[in-house]
Amino acid sequence: MRPVELELGVIAQAAGSARLHMGATDVIVGVKVEVGSPSQGAPDQGRLQVTVEFSPCASPIYQGRFGETYGEQIAAAIEASLAPGGRGGGSDASSSGCGIDLSKLLILRGKTCWMVFVDALVLNDDGNVVTAVSAATLAALRDTRIPKVEVVTDAAGEEELELDDSPGSAWRLDVGGVPLVLTASQVGAQCVVDLTAAEERCATSGLHVAVNRAGQVCGVTMTGRKGIDSSMLLLMMETAQKLGPVLWEQLMKFLTR
Amino acid sequence: MVGVFGPRQSEVKLGFTDTGRLNCEVRYTSFAAARASKAEQGQAEAAAAQALSQALEASAQLERFPKAVFDVSAMVLEAGGADAAVLVTAASAALADAGVELHDLVSAVQVVKCGGQLLLDPSLEEGGAAEGSLLLAAMASTGEVTHMEVRGRWGDGELREGLELALGGCGQLRGAVREALLAGMEERAGGA
To answer: Which CATH architecture has domain B2-191?
Structure first.
């Protein structure tokens, strides 16, 4: 893998942010938190939303609709890795044990919760964008401070929110379970990771594998115009499972410093 | 229900390609599933269409149809679990029925992990209660996987077991689809 360069707190207004270089690939991620209402399907959970945008500077192909759909695809892969229940609905993240525990983001059941917005902007695309966005998201989430909010019941029996503004009382999200998304691509009969943009054109198909720190698979999505043989598929997943924890430890070593 | 239209000429604004394109569209009827909002439904439709084109693209011999587009329109009349898998299987059968040259039929199945057990082709309730799910679309005769989507945490052995189960299911399904297509052909030939 190419060496990773990481900067934290690059956006002053955001609750947390990170900028990541991986070779020439350049990604910036900002996290903002807002108080909102939980979805009807999951009244005891906070909300999480991921968007990925491409700067038209990154490559002319990202102008117009292609950039939008490609961004949505990546956003879906990242969001699925952060909150497995998310888009499909149904099972909650806490029971499946990977991603972020959304129930911690709840303030008042069924009424108010924290909404976490993760916005990623790809400034330059030199391949392996998904891993770059995923790693930057992890760093930005780890950098995020959420202010403490207390629920106070006033004399009339109405519940009110009290916001504690002091930076000391703000809390951080637990990112221990957040997986990293690695892309293993098939070039000819070989399985390769961390391709540059030029190399990516030669790949017939790619597998985005979300791997947590223990090397367990937390999600898979596929791209590409060709099918993958099932033995190749297993090899690709194994490769990602081996690399995931390594990258995770590297990132964490920097983040906890 | 899936309909296939085409080939037709590609729109100029999409630019030139020397291979064909599949243009997939998925709609849910308003009574198909209990959904909270229009936006949520739109999101589900877009995701399903994305999965559908991914799963089918590898199977169609698109290099034989330069500059052409096939429209694959799917409508989910009633969602009763494993919709995405059924969509892919139906759409592939529709492509074959339309006479589009394919490398092989694509069949897809969903496997969910529910309380330590692996369940093939889950119902809506089983899907909702699952800890993890695996969607696999494959060309069963070559064993090539065209689309795969995994959610939830999977142990090493579990994933392997799930994949084997899914591949077996794909193989069974392919046989059934093939038979149905042949029966349909014979019926039409008999009617003419």
So the answer is: 2-Layer Sandwich (3.30)
Interface predicted TM-score (ipTM): 0.73
Q: What is the pLDDT of residues B5-35, one digit of tens each?
A: 655 665 555 555 666 667 777 777 766 666 6
Contacts of residue B55, defined as CB under 8 A and 6 or more positions apart, other chains included, come to B88, B92, B106, B108, B137, B146, B147
Consecutive H or E run containing A246: helix A230-255
Contacts of A226 in chain B (CB under 8 A): 58
Q: Annotate B84-141 with three-state secondary structure.
A: HHHHHHHHHHHHHHCCCCECCCEEEEEEEEECCEEEECCCHHHHHCCCEEEEEEEECC
**pLDDT per position as a tens digit, A193-217:** 888 877 877 888 888 888 888 777 8
* Token couple for A106: 């709840």
Predicted local confidence at residue A90, as pLDDT: 38
Beta carbons within 8 Å of A56's beta carbon, 6+ residues apart: A62, A63, A67
Q: Which CATH number fits domain A4-255: 3.30.230.70, 3.80.10.10, 1.10.10.10, 3.40.630.30?
A: 3.30.230.70
Cis amide linkage into residue B7, ω under 30° from 0: yes
Interface of A to B at Cβ within 8 Å reads 39-41, 69, 72-73, 76, 80, 84, 87-91, 95-98, 205, 207, 212, 216-230, 233-234, 237, 241
Q: Closest by alpha carbon to A33, among A10, A49, A11, A54?
A: A49
* Helix, coil or strand: residue A183: strand
